[in-house]
């Protein structure tokens, strides 16, 4: 019974996280199966951001992997540029025109990038949330075209929806060597902990307790009994977490 519960728990965890894309970089994420999305090739370093225009004349500038400070050439009003929050660096900027004045809204920054699922599990999104200000979703659409295209999406109360069609939005095998994985870090920490335990313990036993030979190993009795403890634990799990009745030891009090 115990092992079946463990299997059910593992299956439930796999199902829960299988369609989640864990962020592993500024603009990349990885699924449970080792595939993932890397948007860094969409715009080269120093290149201009993607641009999308909606029917109301609103313009969106988008740079998914780098904070930009680009201001369009036709926006030459110096006073507006100085008061422009997008000039401080943006990943997603909205520009609206009011007569001859341009209003800038910084919808997202690189540090705010989140990879999220749609409400109905309908794909992968880049989400930017500014508390009490705005929420923006950029849906990533896998495209077979070699270029990337950026469009405004259907409007929604309190939320800005945008669409990014790109071949780089298609899941591929992720090869991320820029930093060690969580598992690698945990293994290194475990190895260092055990090494420190044995070195410090052996030093104390040898210098302060005068131990020699195998007795120098810290908690040597525990390590001697470990194989039998592991065996007993395996038998316990195999029996469905039930203690089996055994004949008493001939040397025990019950036998006497």
UniProtKB/TrEMBL annotation:
> Mind telling me which residue stretches traverse the membrane in this protein?
185-209
Highest taxon listed in the record's lineage: Eukaryota
Q: Would the keyword Transmembrane turn up in this protein's UniProt record? A: yes
- For this UniProt entry, what's an example GO CC term? trans-Golgi network
**Is Transit peptide tagged as a keyword?**
no
Q: Which UniProt keywords apply?
A: Autophagy, Cytoplasmic vesicle, Disulfide bond, Golgi apparatus, Membrane, Mitochondrion, Protein transport, Signal, Transmembrane, Transmembrane helix, Transport
Membrane topology listed for this record: Single-pass type I membrane protein; Single-pass membrane protein
Please give the name of this protein: Autophagy-related protein 27
Q: Which organism is it from?
A: Anopheles atroparvus
List the top taxonomic levels of the source: Eukaryota, Metazoa, Ecdysozoa, Arthropoda, Hexapoda
